[in-house]
Specification:
25% of the residues are buried. This protein is an alpha+beta fold. The chain is elongated and about 60 Å long. It has helices spanning 16-23, 30-37, 41-58, 102-109, 118-130, 156-165, 205-209; strands at 5-13, 25-26, 69-72, 85-93, 98-101, 183-187, 190-191, 195-199. The longest helix has 18 residues, at 41-58.
Length: 213
C-alpha cells in the first residue's frame, strides 16, 4: 500500500467473483437491491437514488453504474465473511473514494431531518412546532411525517428542507483522522487490480488485513 492509496474492506455476495473475473471489475446495480430486499426494495431504492445523485456530484460515476459500493475503512468495522459472501481487501486510489458518515445515513433511510448540531436540532424542532400542525409537541423524530407520514405532500417546503439537510451525510471534518465506526468509503466500482486479497468464510480477516502484499 502506498501513500496515494487507502485500504478498504467490503463484504459482497460471492456471485461478484464471477463478475470480477469476467469483466475485471465489480459494479452495483438496482437489480441486486431488488433481489435482496424483495417487496420493500422500492423504499430503500428511493434513499439509494438520492444518495447516488448527490454522491455523483462529488465523485464522478461511471455511466454503467447505478448504485454505490460501500466499504469499511478498517477491518475492525468490516462485516466478516459468512455463507455465500466474501470480503474484498482493497487498496484503492484516494481520488476514487468518497467518504460519508454511516450514522448520518440512518437519517436518510428513516426520512428524518439531519441537524447540523444540537443548536440546529433545537431550532428545527421549534420551527416545526411553530407551524401549528399538531396538538402534541413535535420532535426531530416526527420529521419523517413530512416525507412518509400523515403530513406527506402537505408541506413541500419542509420536504425540501429535510432533503437538503441530508447532504450533511458527506460532511467529514478531518479526512486524516477518520472515525472507523462512523465513516465509510463509497466506491463506484471495484477494479481487479485494487483487490489485494479475497477472504472466504472460515478464514481470518485480521490475518490478511495489514498485509501489504
Amino acid at each position: 500500500m502506498c501513500n496515494n492509496t487507502i485500504r478498504l474492506y467490503t463484504r459482497q455476495n460471492d456471485k461478484t467473483l464471477s463478475q470480477l473475473n469476467k469483466n475485471g471489475r465489480i459494479i452495483n446495480n438496482k437489480i441486486y437491491v431488488r433481489l435482496h430486499f424483495g417487496d420493500i426494495a422500492d423504499f430503500f431504492l428511493e434513499s439509494y437514488d438520492w444518495y447516488t445523485k448527490e454522491a455523483s456530484k462529488l465523485l464522478t460515476k461511471p455511466e454503467d453504474t447505478e448504485l454505490p459500493i460501500w466499504c469499511s475503512i478498517s477491518e475492525k468495522n468490516c462485516l466478516k465473511p459468512i455463507s455465500e459472501t466474501v470480503v474484498y481487501i482493497l487498496d484503492v486510489p484516494k481520488d476514487k473514494v468518497l467518504y460519508f458518515n454511516d450514522q448520518k445515513w440512518d437519517y436518510v433511510l428513516n426520512r428524518l431531518y439531519l441537524p447540523k448540531d444540537e443548536k440546529d436540532k433545537i431550532e428545527y424542532e421549534n420551527h416545526i412546532n411553530s407551524l401549528g400542525i399538531s396538538e402534541k409537541k413535535l420532535t426531530l423524530i416526527d420529521s419523517y411525517q413530512f416525507m412518509i407520514g400523515k403530513f406527506k405532500g402537505m408541506f413541500p417546503e419542509e420536504e425540501r428542507k429535510i432533503r437538503e439537510s441530508w447532504k450533511r451525510t458527506f460532511d467529514i471534518d478531518d479526512t486524516d483522522n477518520l472515525d472507523i465506526f462512523s465513516i465509510c468509503g463509497n466506491l463506484w466500482e471495484i477494479k481487479k487490480e485494487w483487490v489485494k486479497h479475497i477472504v472466504y468464510p472460515g478464514e481470518d480477516l485480521f490475518k490478511y488485513a495489514n498485509n501489504s502484499n
